[in-house]
Amino acid sequence: MSSLDPSNIERSDPATANEAFKLLSDETRLEVLCTLWEVHDPAEEVPVRFAELRERVNVDDPGRLNYHLNKLGDTFVRRTEDGYVLMDAGKRIVRMVLSGTAIDDPEIEPVAVDISCWYCGGQPEWSYREGWRYLECTNCDARCVESFPPGVISKTEFPPSGLRGRTPIEINEADRIWGAHRRASVMDSVCPECAGEMPITSVDTCADHQPDWDEYQYCENCGSIFWMLVTHVCERCKYRWRMPTLFYPSRHPAVVAFFYDHGIEFDLATYEQRMHLLGFEEELLSEDPLRIRISIRLEDEMLGLTFDERMEVVDMNRGG
Predict the structure, then answer these.
(1) CB burial of residue 191 (10 Å; 0-12, 13-18, 19+)
(2) Bridge partners, 136 (sequence order)
(3) What would you report as the CA-atom Rg of the chain, rounded to the nearest whole angstrom?
(4) Is 198 in contact with 232 (CB distance < 8 Å)?
């Protein structure tokens, strides 16, 4: 199978994108998209006839509705012999509206959740504001990165639509699953936002790493409590994701088997399991070529994995 040459793939024209936004700036056109979505059946695509669409959208002038349908045609709505259906681009627009991103701004006050702070073991509280899920410890002022307020042990993006119909505990669980899949996608170099190529752009190691582990405070030299950080940037939409190297061994079969042999089902299935990551030992073997060794110790046994600049395992050993 031959591979595609990226240079031959047509890039999005900014003028085309601007035209698309102009098309959607009209309230009636958005109502048409949402109406077609309401009657859309994922299992069976049934076109909506003009008369029914006019009644649902509540447009008195048929010429006016026809004008807006023509504007949406070939981009968001397809006309068939039996009526009108949403094209994939139209479905994506409605899904974005339904997700509430950049539209809704809900807030959920802090509520205690049945997990432990992976820094001090204290009681965290879950809250939601400005499109972000916060997990804050009520017992310590841990600050793993400079951009986090004191006490925030975890902060992730989560769409407002995920809040609907769920209790805070259920939202917290959904967020954990949502975040785990997005993180896995990033580690596989696929952008969780647009599915574009998302390669590693840098693996940064702090030359003078001095975090305050007694108070769980970040190193002032690099702004993180973690010594080594990996950055991925999407080549398509420029979405950026940064995370510790410690996450990369978590999905390797040898690591899962190593924990399982010691009676631990390790898959980061719970927030408590993240405390295992803090016990991983890192060593910079060489800078050129980059080689990073991450060792995991359980009881009287040790598993060591060596990673290259793409955070792929190039060597592994297990012993006492």
Answers:
(1) buried
(2) 125, 152
(3) 25
(4) yes
Question: 3-state class of 158 per DSSP?
Answer: coil
pLDDT number for residue 245: 96
Which domains does the chain carry?
9-99 (1.10.10.10), 247-319 (no CATH)
Taking Cα atoms as reference points, which of 61, 59, 76 lies closest to residue 22? 76
Output 251-254 pairs: Cβ under 8 A, ≥24 positions apart: 251/184, 251/187, 252/305, 252/313, 254/303, 254/305, 254/316, 254/318
CB 108 within 8 A of CB 169: no
Q: How far apart are CA 151 and CA 144, in angstroms?
A: 9
Query: Pick the residue with more confidence: 24 or 185?
Result: 185
181 CB burial (10 A radius; 0-12, 13-18, 19+): exposed
Residue 272 has pLDDT above 90, yes or no: no
Measured CA distances, 142 to 149, 163, 193 (Å): 9, 27, 29
pLDDT band of residue 305 (cuts 50, 70, 90) is very high
Return d(Cα 24, Cα 45) in angstroms, integer.
23
Tell me, yes or no, if the pTM score tops 0.85.
Answer: no
**96-124: pLDDT as tens digits:** 776 655 455 678 899 998 888 988 989 99
Average pLDDT of the segment spanning 123-129: 91
Q: What are the CA-CA distances from residue 167 to residues 38, 173, 288, 298 (Å)?
A: 26, 10, 50, 37
Cβ atoms of residues 198 and 191 within 8 Å: yes
